[in-house]
Every structure is written in C-alpha cells, then in structure tokens.
C-alpha cells in the first residue's frame, strides 16, 4: 500500500497589521515573494479569521450600542456588560446556553460557539471597548480571497478561514474552518473503503477542512506570534478546481442537534 504524502505547514511571516480595506490576497503574495517563494498547485492557504474581519471592517465600538431588555436580562444572568450582551445577540440567531462561564450562541452563519465569535484580543482598542466580529459570510470571504490568490499566483489552491472554537465535552479550543473554498470539507468514506482487516468502513466521515484548520492554527499561534497565515502543502488531493459548498456544509443540521 503506498504511503500517503507528508503534509507540512509553514506559517507566513512579514504580513502587515491589517486594517479595513486592505487586500488580504495581495499581502499574502507579497509576503511570500519576500521569502523567495510562491503558492503552488495543491497548496492550501489557511488564514486567521481576525485579519479577514479587520480587512472587511468588522470592528465594533461597544459604546455605540443601546442594550434592549433582552440584552439587559442576558447581562444580568451572565455578569457581562449589557453592551457586550447586545453585541452577542445581534450576531446570533439563538442563544443556546448562558451562564457566567460562557454564552454559547448559534451565530447567524450557523456555527455554534462562545460569544458568537466576538473577540477583543489582538485588536487595537480592545482594552477600551472595541471588539471584532466575524466576517458577515466567511465562505464568501474565502471564495473572494481564493479568486484573488489564484489570479495573483497562477496556482490552483484551497483557502480556509480559521478561528479557534471550543468543543462539547472537551476543554480548550481548536482551530476550526469557518470559511472554505476549493477544498473538501467532509470526506465521506462510508461504504467506500476498508480497514486493515478488510471490513468495509461504516462510520468514517472525515472533517478535512477542520483538521487542516486545526493543524495550521497550532503552527500559526494565537498570541503575539504575528503569523496569521499558514501555507499547507502535501494535501493537494483535497484541493479542487471549483469552490465547493464551503465550511457551512460541515455544520450538523439543527434537527440533528444531539445536545438539547
């Protein structure tokens, strides 16, 4: 049996501090060029959600919000500031759990995570009440960045927008694909492969995009490393010509929610 190719992750240094309107794809290609490298067919570019949100102008001054009664009630229940509670409600389709430990919300995109993805770390003004929201449509953002990167590089690549998210019944966060283009999101091997003993696989559904996001996020770091982009090589078998259905295709339908 042939050995699968090695998968490598290389964090990209030399990127600027992103601000609203800055072209993400151009900055990535410029940083690669300064290293004497370039994107190649089959590469996957994993991009931290924060720089995409910054480039799309998704900064929010909490002081600009006027909390309604629902936000006041949520703030009282969880010990949050009412303006933060309002921001979470604005970005959510549903609050699933609320306690002083965490507010678990279903983001408007369908992803379930703490505080609807709102964050103040690594954000200018975060100490004074400025927060960063997710891109309005992370899959659309991934498709747009991929299109620009492919024009600039001439390579057929995949793009993942990643953010760190918690998991039910586990402690800690893991990089997760919230936007995806040109990449297999789920590899369904049920009934299509066998194990080492020749038994047909019955339950093997691989979260490819999430696995790549997790690997890249671990390499990029989540503090002051300053490397919010990583290039993954050796995973070209999951890269496609078409954009594909996006990270949203990996969300479990609400009617299949097993934790209510």
UniProtKB/TrEMBL annotation:
GO terms for molecular function: coenzyme F420-0:L-glutamate ligase activity. Signal peptide: none annotated. Residues 15-234 form the Coenzyme F420:L-glutamate ligase-like domain. It holds the Pfam family F420_ligase. It is an enzyme of class 6 (ligase). Keywords: GTP-binding, Ligase, Magnesium, Manganese, Metal-binding, Nucleotide-binding, Potassium. Its EC number is 6.3.2.31. NCBIfam families: F420_cofE. This is Coenzyme F420-0:L-glutamate ligase. It comes from Novosphingobium beihaiensis.
């Amino acid at each position: 049996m042939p050995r699968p190719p090695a998968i490598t992750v290389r964090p990209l240094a030399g990127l600027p501090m992103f601000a609203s309107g800055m072209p993400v794809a151009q900055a990535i290609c410029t940083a690669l060029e300064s290293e004497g490298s370039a994107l190649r067919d089959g590469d996957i570019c994993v991009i931290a959600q924060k720089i995409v949100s910054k480039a799309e102008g998704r900064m929010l001054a909490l002081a600009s919000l006027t909390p309604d009664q629902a936000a006041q009630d949520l703030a009282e229940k969880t010990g949050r500031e009412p303006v933060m509670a309002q921001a979470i409600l604005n970005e959510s389709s549903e609050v699933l759990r609320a306690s002083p430990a965490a507010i678990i919300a279903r983001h408007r995109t369908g992803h379930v995570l703490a505080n609807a993805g709102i964050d103040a770390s690594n954000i200018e003004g975060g100490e004074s009440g400025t927060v960063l929201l997710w891109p309005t449509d992370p899959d659309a953002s991934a498709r747009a960045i991929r299109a620009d990167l492919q024009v600039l590089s001439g390579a057929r690549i995949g793009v993942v927008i990643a953010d760190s998210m918690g998991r039910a019944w586990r402690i800690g966060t893991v990089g997760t694909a919230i936007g995806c283009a040109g990449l297999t999101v789920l590899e369904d091997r049920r009934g299509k492969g066998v194990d080492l003993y020749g038994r047909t696989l019955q339950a093997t559904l691989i979260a490819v995009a999430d696995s790549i996001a997790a690997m890249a996020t671990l390499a990029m770091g989540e503090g002051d490393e300053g490397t919010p982009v990583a290039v993954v090589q050796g995973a070209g078998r999951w890269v496609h010509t078409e954009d594909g259905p996006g990270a949203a295709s990996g969300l479990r339908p609400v009617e299949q929610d097993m934790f209510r």
